[in-house]
Amino acid sequence: MHGLSIDVIIPALDEERALPRVLAAIPRPPVRRVVVADNGSKDGTAEVARRAGAEVVLEPERGYGAACLRALALLAEDPPDVVVFLDGDFSDHPDELPMLVGPIARGEAEMVVGSRTRGRRERGSLTPQQRAGNAVACAALRLLYGARYTDLGPFRAIRFPTLERLGMVDRSYGWTVEMQIRAARAGVPHVEVPVSYRSRVGRSKVSGTLRGTLGASRRILWLLARHAWS
User: For residue range 134-157, what is the model confidence (pLDDT) as tens digits?
Assistant: First the structure.
């Protein structure tokens, strides 16, 4: 990718079944290293990750953002040009990583969000509550910050120095929307690209439960409001 160093972060909680398939599908090159942030798994997530050649960091505090921040602290010791975030449940298509990073490599953007709503989706892979939550959050992003998005998709790429400037702090479900809010407020050049999406391996810890869905929705709406008022 035009000499760019690219590292991948995968936050993972009890993804022993899916993670080997995710790691096997990541294209190397262009990816330099993969860091799996084990978010308190009770299964063999860390073991299968190491066996597949990934580096593992442990973050016992439950939360998507907490896991991402822990992995970023490791990458900061030898930072890449670009960091890609990818889920560990095999719902994303890691082989599409070069397409995702393409706009950054071509100098067209500093952040790229993979849009599941614009891409090819397996039937049932996005639940009704996910689609509704995305629509509300993206409408708020446009209204409050003038940022045009169709998704808060987890499969995304950003220049590492740009991400450091954003000063991310959310340790829970709001990680993805916080990144998009802070990028909009900072004027970070960004684009969306359509990405493919399939039903995850196993049950979702967020959209698969009422508690998880409500918790994520509250967090996202709270972040949108807080940043608008600040």
Answer: 888 898 899 888 999 999 999 999
